[in-house]
Specification:
alpha/beta; seven-stranded mixed beta sheet; 493 residues; Spore Coat Polysaccharide Biosynthesis Protein SpsA, Chain A
Length: 493
């Protein structure tokens, strides 16, 4: 039974690793010099009165530390003032409301078409706020920015011209990072997001497969949103849900690698846990909602297959945890002469193919975005361990989604963090430094995996020690990080 379950876990990880390998190979095949002169990154068209009316939506919920920064940044967007309106969609219950009202009035007095729409309830959460704003919006195009994003003034100048293509329903920009080098935690997140945008989004879009709106830093054609049925709050991944419903209606999306919108990465582990939980559960909820429609649609089989893997990618986390739990007993049984045999382990070795895909996606992403990618890629082992360390947290999200258990849309706290300006975020009223129950299970798994390293080494199975050490490092990393942040919070108290 142990050998069978371990084989199942490795088979699942291999399938998703093979998909990453396909993305990496496809990316490499398209990574070539383009003919013609090098485009000037500073050359952007000058908008005039013929450009479509754009509504910028800023959904907020208790964002007192960043709300003024967000509003002021969006007020600086270069676009004809008669063709631009800004909606501050505020569901806040704290001083964010007063701060937002003050900045809105400031810009209204300077001729900007900006309104503050405050709901006294959170019906539908972010989806509900966006749908409420859409009903009042005048724009043909709808740009959306979360509270931690800072679009450059030329953002609309770079995005809007793409909508000359009539079937185009949404354009997504790449996320950048304001504070990637603040800590180990932010570096791990930046590594993961760079791969998602520079390779996954890029390749899926170029290959004609479905991609997704990432919830922010993108522009929708209003007609596309309405044709797809509007924003719906029955999942906590409203962006992924609407993306698939719109593409199933025949709308095309576009991803722009060269347009970057910097954002603040979560600096505390509990905030990252909350964000990962929401993304994981929302993705599973969306897959349960739209996979049937996808497979009944006339889309090509390759689009259906890639869409299925895209929607269900988070399912790898339970199998990472399962592999971590079974690796040591499987090897000890083999050492005692009761294991599945050499052929079994030879077949399991094919799982390395999936690992190659995982590595190449990260490699190509770093190479595409950073001149010093050769130095950055050495961070890969810590990134891999950090990703594996979230296995129990995200498994809990998957179980809740499969059970149909509802949960609130819990916002990711922002602290107005920037690289080079570290702040004592744990002193913020939004900080959450408690020790979550899942951390104790991660601590137990860390001790178990560390003991496995010793046991495996004791049996002389040296080839398996690095694999086991990764499991130990993964769960030790999240445990120690949580404990450290709890200590910081206690010092403040």
């Amino acid at each position: 039974m142990i050998a069978f379950l371990y084989a199942v876990a490795m088979a699942v990880l291999l399938i998703y690793g093979m998909n990453l390998l396909w993305l990496a190979v496809t990316y490499a095949g398209q990574d070539r010099l383009r003919a013609g002169p090098v485009p000037d990154p500073e050359a952007v068209p000058t908008p005039d009165a013929t450009w479509p009316l754009v509504t910028v939506q800023l959904p907020l919920y208790n964002e007192a530390l960043v709300v003024e920064r967000l509003i002021d940044t969006c007020a600086a967007l270069v676009y004809p003032r008669r063709r631009l309106e800004i909606q501050v969609l505020d569901d806040s219950t704290d001083e964010t409301v007063a701060l937002a009202v003050r900045r809105v009035r400031y810009w209204q007095a300077r001729g900007l078409d900006i309104v503050h729409l405050h709901r006294t309830h959170r019906t539908g959460y972010k989806a509900g706020a966006l749908q409420h704003g859409l009903q009042l919006a005048r724009g043909e195009l709808i740009a959306i920015f979360d509270a931690d994003f800072l679009p450059t003034p030329d953002f609309l100048q770079r995005i809007v011209p793409h909508f000359k293509d009539a079937p185009l329903g949404m354009v997504q920009a790449r996320w950048g990072h304001l504070n990637a080098d603040t800590s180990l935690l932010t570096r791990i997140q930046a590594f993961a997001l760079d791969a998602h945008f520079a390779v996954e989004q890029y390749v899926r879009n170029r290959a004609g497969c479905f991609m997704n709106f990432n919830g922010t830093a993108g522009v929708w054609r209003r007609a596309c949103i309405e044709d797809a049925g509007g924003w719906e709050g029955d999942t906590i991944a409203e962006d992924l849900d609407l993306s698939y419903r719109a593409q199933l209606k025949g709308w095309r999306f576009r991803f722009l690698l060269d347009v970057e919108v910097p954002a603040e990465l979560p600096v505390d582990l509990n905030a990252l846990r909350t964000q990962q939980f929401r993304w994981t559960k929302g993705a599973v909820e969306t897959s349960l909602k739209v996979l049937g429609r996808l497979w009944r649609s006339p889309q090509p089989r390759r689009v259906k297959l890639e869409g299925t893997i895209h929607l269900t990618a988070h399912i790898v986390f339970p199998f990472v945890a399962l592999a971590a739990a079974l690796h040591t007993p499987l090897l000890l049984l083999e050492a005692a002469g009761r294991g599945p045999g050499a052929l079994y382990f030879a077949i399991m070795g094919f799982g390395l193919i999936g690992f190659v895909g995982f590595f190449l996606v990260q490699l190509f992403a770093q190479r595409a975005l950073y001149p010093d990618w050769g130095r950055r890629i050495w961070f890969f082992p810590l990134f891999m361990a950090g990703s594996m360390g979230m296995a129990l947290n995200n498994t809990r999200a998957i179980v809740q989604a499969l059970r149909g258990k509802p949960s609130a849309f819990v916002r990711t706290p922002k602290y107005n963090e920037r690289h080079g300006c570290p702040q004592a975020w744990w002193k913020s009223r939004y900080a959450d430094t408690h020790l979550p129950p899942v951390m104790w299970f991660e601590a137990l798994l860390a001790v178990y995996c560390l003991a496995g390293v010793v046991a495996i080494a004791g049996e002389g199975a040296w080839a398996a020690v690095p694999f086991q050490a990764f499991f130990a490092l993964a769960f030790s990393l999240v445990t120690v990080y949580n404990a450290r942040q709890f200590w910081l919070g206690r010092q403040t108290a």
